[in-house]
Amino acid sequence: MKMRLDQNWTTTNNNQPLDDEEVKRYISVVPTENQIRLQEKPFYAFFHFGMNTANDREWGCGSEVATDFDITKIKPEQWVKAVKAGGMTGIILTCKHHDGFCLWNTGTTDFNVMNSPIATDIVKAVSDECHKQGMEFGVYLSPWDMHEKTYGTEQYNDYFVRQLTELCGNYGELFEVWFDGAKGANAKAFTYDWQRYYKIIRTMQPKANIAICGEDIRWVGNEAGKARKCEYSVVPASLKQCESIEKNSQQAENDTAKLQRVDTMDEDLGSRNVLKNNAYLSWYPAEVDVSIRKGWFYHKKDDKTVKSLKKLFKIYLTSVGNNCTLLLNIPPSYKGVICSKDVKRLKALGNKIADITANPVLEQNIGELKHTDGYLEFNFDSPKKLRYFIISENLAYSQRIEKFDLYLKKANGKYKKAYSGTIVGSKKIVKLDKNASGAILVIRQSRSTPHIKSIGFYE
Ligand code: FUL
User: Fold this and answer.
1) Which residue, of 356, 381, 412, is where some domain finishes?
2) Are the C-beta atoms of residues 144 and 100 closer than 8 Å to each other?
């Protein structure tokens, strides 16, 4: 097979301009420090827990009272330990879901956990436990509130800002604030004062990324754990418009299944063809959010729906291993614990993830390629059974690689193509399962000179 090593980014660049004004415009879009930090710790947990756990529902109805939350024991130590074993480095807790019930000691409403039998600030208990176990903590605060009487009036913006201020001020450093776009189809029309909300977070929690109806992290667009083949980080700035995010989000309690099934996403958000028609571009990387079970909240009847290790690992490879972050939901039960089935699955997942890089054959930091580096050649000290290849770009220089080919050297010294890739970004994990004594990586197409942070081959 001809490898056509002469056709690479330094020569033909796959018939795309390497360095014109348009390319300069694309690569001028780079991540913030916060966004880089998140992409370096790309796997974290969602805990959906609250009034719906007590009532065995996915959405509340707005007429609940605080004593309906009749869960009397919680074991955050077990929650945090379980997800840590799963390989996750942070936790986002649903401090208030659409039902409006607050899991913290808030001065904004009586509809909170202190007026329920447990009378414990659950946000504090979970955030303290995170800090104790070296995990990051983040908050989910639903903008839509079915319970609060002021919802739909300007006073609600003040109410929401007060809640946000409490959460930003009293629970240590937050790594992410998650604003859900979901809202019931019949809920009052209301314009959230997003800019005011963002300002509170930027001031009080300068290290937090704001996700979904937020400026830093893009919702992948479904709840099935499915990312696009090419998940670009440089995309049209218009994707940040909260109105359109809301339109595609959940609008009824039983939409969960729909969002897990239907693929309504535009497939191409950031190729040159898309970018060239957009004057304003943004660094807006995707987060995949998915539940380990059928529902977001715990339901006994869902015990059989815990995703298999195979499925979870696939989701990991196609998200974290595909330039996205992964937010995996594990709902604690009404008994205040994470079920043993989920705990076991998480442990197995954590082991499988650690196993990806456990046996390096060759790891190299590369840096900026030179004009003589049309392709890169690697020789191993002996024939290996390769399982994975990992490549990362240095995001400080934006996202540049658009196409690459990987060839592996066989026992007879000949090369065979093992993988054809597209974009790379923060991380591309390629599953190989092939024997090789060396490899050639050809960057076929790039937006200007590639800056490769690192590459690795693993047995
Ligand atoms: C959706 C919500 O309606 C679900 O209940 C869940 O919180 C999910 C993460 O977002 O839009």
Assistant:
1) 356
2) no
Same domain for 39 and 84, yes or no, is yes
Are the CB atoms for 446 and 361 separated by under 8 Å? Answer: no
pLDDT along the chain (459 residues), means of 10: 92 98 98 98 98 98 97 98 98 98 98 98 98 98 98 97 98 98 93 97 98 96 92 95 79 73 72 95 97 98 98 98 98 98 98 98 98 96 97 98 98 96 98 98 98 98
Shared-domain flag, residues 137 and 163: yes
Please name which of 292, 220, 277 lies closest in space to residue 46, comparing C-alpha atoms: 292
The atom number, within ligand 1, closest to the CA of 329 reads 9
Task: Classify each residue of 103-130 as buried b or exposed e, where b means 16 or more C-beta atoms within 10 Å of its C-beta.
Answer: bbbbebbebbbbebebebbbbbbbbbbb
In a domain, 327, yes or no: yes
Q: What 3-state DSSP class applies to 261?
A: helix
Residues 315 and 402 in one domain: no
At 239-251, the pLDDT tens digits run 998 877 777 788 8
Q: Could you say which of 356, 381, 410 is where a domain stops?
A: 356
Instruction: Take residue 217 and report the two structure tokens written for it.
Output: 């992290």
Q: Residues lining ligand 1, judged by CB closer than 6 Å?
A: 58, 180, 182, 249-250, 289, 296
Q: Is 351 in the same domain as 365?
A: no
**Residue 231 Cα, ligand 1 centroid: separation in angstroms?**
22
388 with 341, same domain? Answer: no
Residue 286 falls within a domain, yes or no?
Answer: yes
Integer-rounded Cα Rg, in Å, for the chain is: 23
Residue bearing the CA closest to ligand 1, atom 2: 182
One domain, residues 314 and 366: no
The boundaries of the domain holding residue 56 are 33-356
Q: Is residue 22 part of a domain?
A: no
448 in the Ramachandran plot: left (φ > 0), alpha (ψ -120 to 50) or beta?
left
> What is the pTM (predicted TM-score) of this model?
0.97
CA 121 – ligand 1 centroid, Å: 22
C-alpha 241 – ligand 1 centre gap (Å):
18
The rounded Å distance from CA 441 to ligand 1 centre is 41
Give me the number of domains the chain comprises: 2
C-alpha 246 – ligand 1 centre gap (Å): 11
Q: What is the CATH number of the domain that holds 338?
A: 3.20.20.80
With the most atoms of ligand 1 within 8 angstroms of its CB, the residue from 53, 180, 302 to mutate is 180
